[in-house]
Design brief:
With about 325 residues, the protein is of the alpha/beta class. The protein folds into 2 domains: about 1-155, 3-Layer(aba) Sandwich (Rossmann fold); about 190-315, Riboflavin kinase-like (Elongation Factor Tu (Ef-tu), domain 3, Beta Barrel). Helices cover about 30% and strands about 25% of the residues. A 6-stranded parallel beta sheet has the order 1-4-3-2-5-6, with helices on both faces. Helix 5 crosses helix 6 (about 135-145) and helix 7 runs antiparallel to helix 8 (about 180-190). The two termini are about 30 Å apart.
């Protein structure tokens, strides 16, 4: 996949293209269904299947108080779009200058001049340009003038459900993760919810208890952590996947532990992971976060968590 960070990075003569525009937060099943159709039509017409997205949620600038937490980092989004098979991605910096572009100027600069779009995919509620003044009707009119066709995109329902199922959306994924329902989030995403960061040194309490953990650096965390609790997950380090019991929360049995901290106990692995990148793919919630009256009780619970993790991952290998 070719990746362009900003309009200036798009080479002269790029295209002709078929373009889908959106936040693509999480690149969930709905996004992937759109991309599949985009790729099919692009291939039929000899066009480059291209995604236009943004380096941040536009609400972070336009309505910060209403802006949700992103499901993935820009790096993760780029990787997921590449895996989805698009030919190119243009990531625009959503700043005040972009937000103030009139709809006609946005279309001319991005779709016409930079990408030579012949097809543009848009949902019925698509808005673009200054104050969201542009809508699908205007996009169709501008396309008629500029020589591109607008393809309307229907809502996509979550996989394996009937017509009554709610549409696949980043909001749904976020709700599921915030409630700890990682299996539900995975169904909407079409894959396990995943986070990654660098392993940093912790208090080493886990090692003292016989269950060493890899502590994720919250400052470099990519992806959205699920709710506090213990989870069965796959941990990937240097391309090798390991079963892991992951604890998320402030560990109420001890004082002074930061809130919503993630630490992973890799089963049957005792290695120095400090400074290495670890990726966690969540499979099942084992239990909620709870305090224990003694260290002995905590150890018994951790052993039970490890056993439950083995069972949960046995069917997911």
């Amino acid at each position: 996949m070719r990746f362009f960070e900003g309009l200036d990075a798009v080479p002269a003569g790029f295209g002709p293209s078929a373009v889908a525009i959106g936040k693509f937060d999480g690149v969930h099943t709905g996004h992937r269904a759109v991309i599949t159709r985009l790729r099919r039509l692009a291939a039929e017409r000899g066009l480059a299947a291209t995604v236009v997205t943004f380096d941040r949620n536009p609400l972070s600038l336009l309505a910060p108080a209403s802006c949700p937490t992103s499901l993935v980092s820009n790096a993760q989004k780029r990787e997921l779009l590449a895996e989805a098979g698009v030919d190119a991605t243009l990531m625009l910096t959503f700043d005040r200058q972009l937000a103030e572009l009139e709809p006609e100027v946005f279309v001319r600069r991005v779709l016409v001049d930079a990408l030579a779009a012949h097809l543009v995919f848009a949902g019925a509620d698509f808005r673009f340009g200054r104050r969201g003044a542009g809508d699908v009707e205007l996009l169709v009119a501008l396309g008629a003038e500029a020589g591109f066709e607008v393809v309307l995109v229907d809502d996509v329902r979550a996989a394996d459900r009937g017509p009554g199922e709610r549409r696949a959306s980043s909001t749904w994924v976020r709700e599921a993760l915030e409630a700890g329902r990682v299996d539900e989030a995975a169904r909407v995403l079409g894959r396990a919810a995943t986070v990654r960061s660098v392993v940093v040194e912790g208090e080493k309490r886990g090692r003292e208890l016989g269950f060493p953990t890899a502590n994720l650096d919250p400052a470099r965390l990519e992806g959205l952590l699920p709710a506090d609790g213990v989870y069965a997950a796959w941990a990937t380090v240097d391309g090798v996947r390991h079963p892991a019991a992951v604890s998320i929360g402030d560990n109420p049995t001890f004082d002074g532990v930061p809130q919503h901290q993630a630490e992973a106990h890799l089963l049957d692995v005792d290695a120095d992971l400090y400074g290495r990148t670890i990726e966690l793919a969540f499979v099942q919630r084992i239990r909620g976060m709870e305090p224990f009256a003694s260290l002995d009780a905590l150890v018994v619970a951790i052993r039970s968590d490890v056993d439950a993790t083995r069972r949960a991952l046995a069917g997911d290998a």
